[in-house]
Design goal:
Four copies of one chain form a homotetramer. The longest helix of chain A has 37 residues. The mean pLDDT of chain A is 91. By secondary structure, chain A is mostly helical. Chain A is elongated, with a radius of gyration of 17 Å. Helix content of chain A is 86%, strand content 0%. At the A-B interface, helix 1, helix 2 and helix 3 of A face helix 1, helix 2 and helix 3 of B.
């Protein structure tokens, strides 16, 4: 069971809001909104997505990484590497 | 008329795909997918959104910034500042 | 002559400050400062570097992209593509 | 003692190289190098800095976060929050 169990509803609520924002972006393009306003909204949706990512990362370190470390040191190290690689992907996106 | 007129369909197609990816993220959370896999997918959606942003920026500079510069130097300068401020918001998101 | 001629001294001053901050990071590591404090300082240096980049981008669009557009439409288009590709590299870094 | 003890020399070596790159940026500006080439180099220095940050984050989670978790659960939670806040600052920079 993944570490985000407890706040699962919170993640889903945020992702539904983000889905609505992406539909809003389509409506902006369809009604010829000014490019800069669309860009500002894209920055806002990106930030919201990163927020969900940071929430998941928090829970992942809090639960999965720790549990792995308690069971087996090598397993714990592997989990840390995996989490940092995920952060690297977020930074590059 | 905004500068992205010509590639409007392309932007809409990409945004519909992104909307589907955000729904996919909800499904991943609902079916308890592994946190790291959700994070990888979030990085991918963020990258896709930035891609739409870069496309809009390209057209904005190509059309709006240039047109403004041709009409009036001060108007042109204001457009450049506005575009760079939009890039700054993308960088911080 | 590049577009940043006028604010060249400002860029140099900022880069010298950034050089000092990077030396400060070395001193933090040498004196075993707390990891999180080093990370906070890294975020601050990165932001300062992006600031120089945004300044250069502003002048580049203001001068080089515009001049190219005035001389030749194809040349102007090539400059826009080049500038947007540079923004894409900043976003991924 | 911070978690990055073991790879301290590696961090210092990287930071000295980054310091040299920042001096190289100054030389580029002083010799009127093309704006886009300076921007490309800025993206490269930023990436190198983020690399040091990711290395520190890896060691921080591996050592400090884990140790705190083993001593005291609340202390462990506080360390996770602190680390995720540091990642958030990197993402916004």
């Amino acid at each position: 069971m993944p570490g985000y169990q407890l706040t699962r509803d919170d993640h889903l609520k945020r992702l539904r809001r983000i889905e609505g924002q992406v539909r809003g972006l389509q409506a902006m393009i369809e009604s010829d909104k000014y490019c800069i306003d669309v860009l500002t909204q894209i920055a806002s949706v990106t930030k919201a997505l990163q927020g969900v990512g940071l929430g998941l990362l928090d829970e992942h370190i809090r639960h999965c990484v720790r549990e792995a470390a308690e069971t087996d040191e090598h397993e714990g190290d592997a989990k840390v590497e995996e989490a940092v690689a995920a952060v690297a992907r977020l930074l590059k996106s």
